[in-house]
Amino acid sequence: MTRMQRWTAACRTGALLGCGLLLTLPAVAQDLQPNFPVELDKKLAARASDVNEVTMNKTMLKFASQFLDSKDKDDVQAQRLIQNLNAIYVRSYEFSEPGQYTPEDLKTIRQQFLGPDWNPMVKVRSKKGEGDTDVYVKMVGNEVKGMFVLDAEPKELDMVYISGSIRPEDLKQLSGNFGVPNLNLQKSSTKESK
Amino acid sequence: MVEFGREPHDSENDGFDPELEAMFEQELRTSLQARPAPEGFVDRVLTRMDALPHHEPAPWPVRTIRNPLVRGAIAATLLLSVGVGGYFEHQRERQIAGEHARQQVLLALRITGSTLQDVRNKVDGNNASQQDAN
Question: Hey, are the CB atoms on B120 and A185 less than 8 Å from each other?
Answer without folding.
Answer: yes
